[in-house]
Amino acid sequence: MILIAAICALAVLLLVTGFEMLLVLGLPTLVVKEGFFAALPDAVLAQKMTGGINQSLLLAIPFFLFAAELMGEGQIARRLTTLVRAFVGHLPGGMGYTTIGAAMGFGSVSGSAPATVAAMGHIIYPELRRTGFPEKFSLGLIVSSAETALLIPPSIALIIYGWLSGTSIASLFVAGLGVGVVLGLAFAVMVALQARRSGVRGDPRPSRFELWAAIRGAGWAMGMPLIILGGIYGGIFTPTEAAAVSCAYAIFVECVVYRKLGFGGLVRVTERAAIATGVIFILLAMGSLLSYFITLAQIPGAIIAGFEAIEGGPITFLIVVNVIFIIAGMFVDPNSIQLILVPPLFPVATALGIDPVHFGMIVAVNVTLGMVTPPFGLDLFVASSQLNRPVTTIIQGIWPFILANLVVLLLITYVPGLSTLLPRLIL
After folding, report:
1. Residue 13 and residue 28: Cα distance in Å, rounded?
2. Which of 188, 157, 159 is nearest to 368 (CA)?
3. CA 160 to CA 151: how far, in whole Å?
4. Which of 10-14, 107-111, 190-194, 305-309 has the highest mean pLDDT?
5. pTM of the entire predicted model
């Protein structure tokens, strides 16, 4: 217990004093090593850091980040939005449904919520305002809809969870598809209520010619989700191979077919993706080291013993897990949250008989909520910079969607079938 207290106290101290997350993750392990495992050779630390990220599965992350940057810089994101709007834009509040559907479509080829906000926010926000949605609601809807990118495959958050827990990525992707649709439907209910309250109408109903024109215009763009999802679920690609193919396809479509992305744009995209990849992999390396010491200190065993002592079952455990994740999400980014919390909590979950895929969906919904939870939800600041709106205004518009998130979190937590049914049917 002394070791647990030392790691937690030092990590919290570093976090509140403004240290970078790589130091928040790394320094406590070094202090613990010198204080409790001084005989451990220093070379082991380097081996654990490099060995932890030296896995082919993690190659999917830089590939999907690169593909997301390509689509945001080029035309794929815009054409996906046009396609969704052609089918649902004529409904009352149709632009709100378009926002949700377009975010889910973009998320299905990027796996990144910040990339979804950055790529689609400046396209959608003016249209939401033009059709009559209030400013704060529009901002909250854009930021919240981007959360589905962390659930709809190929989710980077699910890839990291699968890497940490050893759970099948394919099973997590299938489960994430179902859970992402549930979250999208919850947001659609919020849109319907707001549209009725504000008297928001839809676009004129499109003709068959206009629908066909939207389908033709987005034909190449639709190839991205078809390649990724069809390839993975059809057993043609592994997630990593699908990520690599998606990059090649995006380069071909944006540079050759649409011809909207020149050499200079390709260089900018590559630079941004490389920086984002470097940040994530540094965190993953530090997380590998932290996970090693958590295992070495037998922290999962201590947590299990504590639950047995208080006779706590799965219901109590999941309540505690949700509270911990919600609080952590207010201050820490989703990747770091998983690196800190999944290694000690996952063995406890499996010991209590909780399905690994079900637990993964609980973790995923919690980290998506953390992306929009004040005061430090990452997507709040991405939207502020992209849309040139104060963070305080975005926070005022986010609360109805946080409530919808919490309802979905409770459903996912205590109705396991929402997470496990699709993987069992498909896989």
Report:
1. 10
2. 157
3. 12
4. 190-194
5. 0.84
Runs of H (alpha helix) within 132-238: 135-145, 156-165, 169-198, 208-217, 219-233
In the chain, pLDDT over 70 holds for what percent of residues?
94
pLDDT at residue 307 greater than cutoff 70: no
**pLDDT, tens digit (0-9, with 9 covering 90-100), for 267-299:** 888 898 888 888 888 888 887 887 777 777 676
Rg (CA), the chain: 22
Per-residue pLDDT at 116 exceeds 80:
no
pLDDT band for position 32 (cuts 50, 70, 90): confident
Angstrom distance (rounded) from CA 28 to CA 8:
8
Closest CA to 144 of 190, 109, 176, 111: 190
Minimal CA–CA distance to 380: which of 326, 336, 417, 331?
331
Q: What percent of the chain has pLDDT over 90?
A: 22
What span, in angstroms and rounded, lies between the C-alpha atoms of 131 and 383? 20
If you average pLDDT over every residue of the chain, what do you get?
84
In b/e form, how buried is each residue of 401-423, taking b as 16+ CB within 10 angstroms? bbebbeebbebbbeebebbbebb
Q: Where are the domains of the chain?
A: 17-426
- How far lies 369's CA from each of 18, 126, 203, 340, 361, in Å? 22, 25, 31, 17, 12
- First-to-last alpha carbon distance for the chain, in angstroms, is 41
Cα–Cα distance, 95 to 54 (Å, whole number): 44
User: At 91, phi and psi to the nearest 5?
Assistant: -75, 155
Distances (CA, A) of 321 to 50, 166, 276, 362, 414: 29, 19, 28, 9, 13
Q: How far apart are CA 306 and CA 39, in angstroms?
A: 29
DSSP string, 233-268: HTTS--HHHHHHHHHHHHHHIIIIIS----HHHHHH
